[in-house]
């Protein structure tokens, strides 16, 4: 049976900070809004705090108490991505925490920091996987010649590298997609003009596939369906802006090239 220390304000503050940190990590690693709020509220309710409100968007999470004790915590999220391995660990952490009788909050927060610092696949593995996936998709739509396959791999790897470098300095996801799409389209037409490929279409389409916000689109729909209108609308608008950025990058090169 869980031990509730409802009158211990310091313990309550620790619990809310733990829940806030968990919510932050879930958002940063690609969890849906309803899943974030559910996990955060379960953490609080497991300690007996049933009057907690949680407001979550893709860029901010706010925790507050209905009671008049003045407790309110907010955390802004600047960087978001998708890391299913960390999401699995965070979900396991949430389930384990709820079942604990009297956990040490400092140790639990340290565990969250440990999960946050876990390193995923190396950049080389990610770039190679991105290139292979792009080349295979290009092959599916007709680019099954060996030269197109190989050049699509390198074009996609180059765009992924440039995308990551831009994100390190600007964190502007729209700008990163715009530049990456320009690089891909320019590479396709340069290779075509050098007569290394007979048509740039399959190379361009295949290389652009990793840039498309398919997961973000699905998450926006799930948020809207679950009733999180603010988060769902924000995610959907972000998807539209990314698609516009990709289309603009391609159209810019086509326009300059006179195609």
UniProtKB/TrEMBL annotation:
**Start and end of every Threonine/serine exporter-like N-terminal domain?**
18-256
Please report the record's description of how this protein sits within the membrane: Multi-pass membrane protein
**What does the UniProt entry say about where the protein is found?**
Cell membrane
> Where the protein is mainly located, per its record?
membrane
Supply the Pfam families for this chain. Answer: ThrE (PF06738)
Residue ranges of the TM segments: 121-140, 146-163, 172-191, 197-218, 239-258
Mind listing the UniProt keywords for this protein, alphabetically? Cell membrane, Membrane, Transmembrane, Transmembrane helix
Superkingdom as given in the UniProt entry: Bacteria
Claim: Transmembrane helix is one of the keywords in the record: yes
Q: Which family does the similarity line name?
A: Belongs to the ThrE exporter (TC 2.A.79) family.
Q: What is this protein called?
A: Threonine/serine exporter family protein
Q: Which organism is it from?
A: Peptostreptococcus equinus
């Amino acid at each position: 049976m869980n031990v509730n220390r409802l009158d211990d304000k310091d313990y309550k503050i620790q619990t809310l900070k733990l829940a806030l940190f968990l919510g932050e990590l879930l958002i940063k690693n690609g969890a849906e809004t309803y899943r974030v709020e559910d996990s955060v509220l379960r953490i609080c309710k497991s300690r007996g705090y049933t009057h907690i409100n949680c407001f979550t968007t893709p860029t901010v999470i706010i925790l507050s108490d209905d009671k008049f004790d003045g407790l309110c915590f907010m955390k802004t999220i600047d960087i978001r991505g998708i890391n299913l391995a960390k999401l699995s660990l965070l979900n396991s952490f949430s389930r384990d925490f709820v079942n604990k009788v009297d956990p040490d909050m400092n140790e639990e927060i340290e565990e969250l920091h440990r999960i946050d610092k876990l390193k995923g696949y190396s950049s080389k593995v990610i770039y190679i996987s991105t290139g292979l996936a792009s080349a295979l998709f290009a092959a599916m739509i007709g680019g099954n010649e060996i030269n197109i396959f190989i050049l699509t791999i390198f074009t996609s790897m180059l765009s992924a590298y440039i995308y990551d470098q831009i994100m390190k300095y600007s964190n502007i996801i729209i700008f990163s997609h715009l530049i990456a799409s320009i690089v891909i389209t320019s590479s396709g037409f340069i290779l075509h003009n050098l007569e290394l490929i007979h048509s740039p279409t399959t190379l361009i389409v295949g290389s652009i596939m990793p840039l498309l916000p398919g997961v973000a689109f699905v998450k926006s729909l799930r948020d809207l369906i679950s009733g999180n209108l603010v988060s769902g609308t924000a995610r959907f608008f972000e998807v539209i802006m990314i698609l516009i950025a990709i289309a603009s990058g391609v159209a810019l090169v086509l326009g300059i090239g006179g195609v």
